[in-house]
Amino acid sequence: MNWKTILVHLDDSRRCATRMQFAMEFARRFDAHVIGLYLVCQDLGHPLFDPGLSLQRGAYGEQRRTSLDNAREAFEQAARLAGVNGEWRAPTGSVLDAATLHGRHADVVVLGQDDPDDPGAFIARRFVEDVVMGLGRPVLLVPRSGDIKTLGESVVIAWDDSREATRAVADALPILRRARFVEIMTVERHRDEKSPVGIEISAYLDRQGVSASFSSTPRIRGENTGLTLMDRANSVHADMLVAGAYAHSRGLERVLGGVTRTLLETSTLPFLLSH
Question: Which stretches make up the UspA domain (predicted)?
Fold first, then answer.
């Protein structure tokens, strides 16, 4: 099975064009339909527009309309250049409700990593987290910086034998089948901890047409598991990471951090998350 419907979130952020090209590239590979979902912050108190403009509703609305028109033109042009079937949507109302509703009718949703240095990247508090948790579809997260030269050619799977990791592997099969290199990696949290056996997941992938190696990496002293995963992925020159989201309760993750939060906040690689 391939991805046939790819939804990409569009906004007024500096990274939007990169995210859009990311979606177009996968659409070309899978002959997929691309939905451009334009959603921006609805909080009038958040400084998304030119501070030199009047705060009057008319000036604010005019800039919003201009931004929407520019985003639509850029999306439609990108779809034409990529030779894919593109569909523009700009729903009103709650951004989280819209992202969840429209995303549930796609095979994968492409979002951007939060960028505290770009006001245009702010949509809502915990937007990415809430979409991942409520969507029921895999999310491909594009990092807020860096060049994306290859996509899904060298993939690292973060494996801990959990429900979330199992779901992520199944969701990532369209990418894994086309990858040149796939590594299943576990991180040992304690020296006396036995790593989850990788034979079964390796055999499963082999039956799916995916040849994968398996490794177990000790956690670097002073680092959390998420950083160890990224160090390993970078050491093998991976261009994508596949991971399950929120193996613990989301409330606990927000208080204590965790692998998912580390990846969401600091990953420099595109990665696929499933919950």
Answer: 3-143
